């Protein structure tokens, strides 16, 4: 790894230095959090089209029961229901803060996890040569003054979506996220400052990293209201460990007025075998995910009213279950949107239906809405990105989405 890239990522992991220098508050108060479900979650189980005859017929063992039945779906409307394991999110739907965009995804037909994730994170489907991620381009184009903690990536490795020239702070996973690191040593900082004194770019990166760590440490050191536990289980970024990490991320965003963008990822959604229905492997993962998203909302507290949380996966899964009681790599999926600015209580997007003639390649839910079409109104109407900035974030972007005006509150 290039030494500048190393500094941009590892040196920004949360530590405990005093704040070195005040920065102008760059936050407009409007925030965006992206949660990526790596492994291709089954959107036809998350928001199940129980009103379609082909749904249950294609999934004799894993179809979710209709609303009102034992272990049945939570009714969203006459066509769709929410997986019962996502019960913690029902209050957000009823409160008008949760919406879904079904039959959405990437226009590129790849069924490769690696390629599809890369296309989502670069924001340029079908183009592998893009060097940076769309959230880093967004960070560089937002109005207002920059700050070392304006964008935060949660995890142990640098995410593709935030790769680029703009500095990004990093919050680790588990209790170790709060531990001091070698970069927190004042002697090491002084030595690096002397080493990079003749390189303005590296000197600026070092300054951003040390100040960013200090700013996050200061924010996280503030006492929590009753009922907010600042600890978390150690482990990989799986659905099981997501709740505590998500709450910590929400607390950081709420307490640090500079933080405007955040990214985190949850793995384990490649359910080829024994997927289950209302109970089983997928249900267990969704239950943990639902708890985590609710914990993220709780951690955000009052900041939730100005925050949009986007949940997306690289592609969907097949309509028909396979011989192992699971589902294989598919196309269309469902995007989730949660937060105060969201015009919730609705399932948006053009629904193509599940007739064989409507399926992509005769097997998958067709992609009717490009994921960028969902993100574009968020970047402009919510975050204030200019037309020129949007063109840089999503070059060769698709046409404006017909439901764009229905996505956010007026």
Topology:
Blueprint: H1 3-10, E1 31-37, H2 43-46, E2 47-48, H3 53-58, E3 74-75, E4 81-82, H4 90-94, E5 98-105, H5 113-122, H6 134-141, E6 151-154, E7 169-171, H7 186-195, H8 200-221, H9 239-255, E8 261-266, H10 281-300, E9 307-313, E10 333-338, E11 347-348, E12 369-370, H11 371-382, H12 387-393, H13 404-407
Parallel strand pairs: 1-8, 1-9, 5-11, 5-12, 6-7, 6-8
Antiparallel strand pairs: 2-4, 3-4, 5-10, 9-10
Helix pairs in contact: 1-8, 6-12, 9-10
Structural notes for this entry:
32% of the residues lie in helices and 12% in strands. It is of the alpha/beta class and 410 residues long. It has a single domain, classed as Alkaline Phosphatase, subunit A (3-Layer(aba) Sandwich). The strands form two sheets. Strands 1, 5, 6, 7, 8, 9, 10, 11 and 12 form a nine-stranded mixed β-sheet that branches. A three-stranded antiparallel β-sheet has the order 2-4-3. Helix 1 packs parallel to helix 8. The longest helix is centred in the middle third of the chain and has 22 residues. The protein starts with a helix and ends with a helix. InterPro entries: DUF1501. Pfam families: DUF1501 (PF07394). It comes from Pelomonas baiyunensis. This is DUF1501 domain-containing protein.
Structural features:
disordered N terminus; 9-stranded mixed β-sheet; Alkaline Phosphatase, subunit A; globular; 32% helix; 410 residues; alpha/beta
Mean pLDDT metric: 86
Question: What structural class results from the helix and strand content?
Answer: alpha/beta
User: What is the CATH third-level topology name?
Assistant: Alkaline Phosphatase, subunit A
* Major β-sheet profile: 9 strands, mixed
Query: Regarding CATH, which class?
Result: Alpha Beta
**Terminal CA distance:** 45 Å
**Amount of helix:** 25-40%
Give the low-confidence spans. 1-27, 211-236
Overall shape: it is globular
Beta-strand proportion: 5-15%
H-E order: HEHEHEEHEHHEEHHHEHEEEEHHH
Number of strands: 12
